[in-house]
From TrEMBL:
<dbReference type="GO" id="GO:0016783">
    <property type="term" value="F:sulfurtransferase activity"/>
</dbReference>
<dbReference type="Pfam" id="PF02635">
    <property type="entry name" value="DsrE"/>
</dbReference>
<keyword id="KW-0963">Cytoplasm</keyword>
<dbReference type="GO" id="GO:1990228">
    <property type="term" value="C:sulfurtransferase complex"/>
</dbReference>
<dbReference type="InterPro" id="IPR003787">
    <property type="entry name" value="Sulphur_relay_DsrE/F-like"/>
</dbReference>
<protein>
    <submittedName>
        <fullName>Sulfurtransferase TusD</fullName>
    </submittedName>
</protein>
<dbReference type="InterPro" id="IPR027396">
    <property type="entry name" value="DsrEFH-like"/>
</dbReference>
<comment type="similarity">
    <text>Belongs to the DsrE/TusD family.</text>
</comment>
<dbReference type="GO" id="GO:0097163">
    <property type="term" value="F:sulfur carrier activity"/>
</dbReference>
<dbReference type="InterPro" id="IPR017463">
    <property type="entry name" value="Sulphur_relay_TusD/DsrE"/>
</dbReference>
<dbReference type="GO" id="GO:0002143">
    <property type="term" value="P:tRNA wobble position uridine thiolation"/>
</dbReference>
<keyword id="KW-0808">Transferase</keyword>
Length: 154
């Protein structure tokens, strides 16, 4: 049994490494889904024979947004038409491959990104967490790193 790779993304959305992380994730997921004979376009991911595939019980790839990459989870982040909108690109990739998009809650809050619960808890005026992203504690990162995962930092 192989371990699921973990992309630890820390780069700001304007940094080339943030774009490289997305390209790596796309390439890896495309290759992994082909290797596991998974139809990534199905609403309920099953293998091409229509039988539940145990590999789909966990993501093919783990990602964790930390530090300045928390800006990606801001649904109010505007991008000019001549630049790639990394938030939307991650959302589409997550939807296609049933990929969770966890963001460190403390780094997100310190950069002005909040969900409804944290906005209420910290008495903030509103929330701006983009659809598909979730705010989580560092324990989630620790769980992803157990069992000798292959960590790739961007």
């Amino acid at each position: 049994m192989t371990t699921t790779p973990l992309l630890l993304i820390t780069a700001d959305p304007s940094h080339p490494l943030a774009h490289l992380a997305l390209r790596y994730a796309r390439a890896y997921l495309k290759s992994a889904s082909a290797d596991h004979n998974i139809d990534s376009h199905a609403d309920d991911i099953v293998n091409k024979e229509g039988i539940d595939n145990p590999i789909t019980k966990r993501p093919l790839l783990n990602v964790f947004f930390y530090g300045d990459s928390a800006h990606l989870a801001n649904r109010l982040l505007w991008q000019s038409a001549d630049q790639m909108n990394l938030t939307k690109e991650w959302q589409m990739l997550a939807e296609r491959y049933q990929l969770p998009l966890p963001v460190c809650v403390s780094t997100a809050l310190s950069r002005g990104v909040s969900d409804t619960d944290n906005s209420t808890r910290h008495q903030l005026d509103g929330d701006n967490l983009a659809t598909g992203f979730t705010l989580v504690g560092l324990s989630e990162l620790a769980l992803m790193m157990q069992d000798g995962c292959r960590l790739i930092k961007f």
